[in-house]
């Protein structure tokens, strides 16, 4: 075998950072040594793996083909090293991204379980909206993603973790809070504050009202759910938010969930990963423990 693990590690570092200099810094190598290792790998394989796009390095077709296979080889090499140093079988790092609802309400408990039962597994964790989680998994930034709703990218695998639903909320002082039921026509007359475009919550809400409400009066859009909750609690607005994000505020009487029989906004929280990735025991461990955890959660099906 002519190529080395060091060359593959350099290739992966450049693919991740998009820069030879950043890759060299991350690997604690000189820039010249990093460039040389990459050039040697390309020469040995007989194919260009990157092309320059301005100041960044972009993967060629061959680089895209190589990346999941290189990541798997590097992962297996790490597992061998851990094994000979008498480490746990589930050892190493995994990059995970999750949408806001899962990140705030479910991931802290899951990470606590992982830290307790699998102390050698390190989860590098980012919070992003569903659209960006999908993009990050597609671009190899994350080995595992957790999204709201559906993913239509054929390059990614999807597996349902659990179910949640969205609710329309108002303040206890809002006129609609006194109604036993609220119609779609009444919703069309309301002032709204909503999640931004690209958020899973927004996509599901837009799909639910599509063809029924033509002109929704959206006053503000925010990424932060606490901002939306506060605006609704203290203002004349309605919002559509995940039940997990508002259940405590409804129980305390700060918000009211409106009964809108025409709306059905049940949704999935799902795992996604690249379909061309090989076996990954760290990813499988997280999925298994996450499903086990859900059996004890009263608010999520």
TrEMBL record:
PANTHER family: HTH-TYPE TRANSCRIPTIONAL REGULATOR, LYSR FAMILY TRANSCRIPTIONAL REGULATOR. SUPFAM superfamilies: Periplasmic binding protein-like II (SSF53850), Winged helix' DNA-binding domain (SSF46785). The gene is cysL_1. This is HTH-type transcriptional regulator CysL. It comes from Vibrio stylophorae. Pfam families: HTH_1 (PF00126), LysR_substrate (PF03466). Belongs to the LysR transcriptional regulatory family. Keywords: DNA-binding, Transcription, Transcription regulation. Residues 1-60 form the HTH lysR-type domain. Signal peptide: none annotated.
